[in-house]
Amino acid sequence: MPSDREYELVYIVAPTATDAEVEALQTQVAELVKEFGGTVEHTDVWGRRKLAYEIGHFTEGIYVVQLLDGPGEMIGELGRRLRVRDEVLRYLIVRVDDDLRKVRRAAEKRKATVQRRRAARGKPPLPEADDAPPAEGPPAGADVGTGDAAPPAAGLPPASAADTGTPEATKATSEVQQ
Q1: 133 exposed, middle or buried (CB, 10 Å; 0-12, 13-18, 19+)?
Q2: CA–CA distance, 3 with 72 (Å, rounded to integer)
């Protein structure tokens, strides 16, 4: 079992805090994480947002989200230090490495399924580009008119060239649906 885990830290800072104070708090969190041998993978400041309910006479807060990587002992100390800070209204620490592992496993499974289906159709495998986004629509030069078409919904006539959205076609379609 690995000793380092990934955690997501979300904390809400009082709206009276300046940008410098928010940055100083982020730096203090990063230093504490570094003391325990962890790293801050990503920091995202969502900015000033309205709170769902009033906390300490504040209706707004500055949201900060940090992705941390480190040992479990770090979380107890981090929670203790955030709890005593007056400018921190609320905080939440969630372990996300299991979720990320499940997402990666699901993506690998989808990729293997796509490769297996392409091989069954006699098509070449997709290139191994992890950073490339999936292609939208059919590939260039593909014959769109062929392939597996979904059967029409129950009770609806199959689509034809006559169904172009004209009033007559719309009237005929609505009569069939009734």
Answers
A1: exposed
A2: 8
Yes or no: say if 66 and 26 are a contact pair by the CB < 8 Å rule: yes
Rounded Cα distance, 150 and 93, in Å: 45
Q: Is the pLDDT of residue 178 over 90?
A: no
Between CA 173 and CA 123 the distance in angstroms is 38
Contact between 9 and 78 under an 8 Å Cβ cutoff? The reply is: yes
Q: Which residues contact 32 (CB under 8 A, 6 or more apart)?
A: 74, 77, 78, 81
Token pair of 72, please?
Answer: 């479990």
CB atoms within 10 A of CB 12: 21
Round to whole Å and give the CA distance between 149 and 177.
Answer: 21
The C-alpha atoms of residue 40 and residue 86 are separated, in whole angstroms, by 23
Residue 161: pLDDT band (50, 70, 90) is very low
**pTM more than 0.85:** no
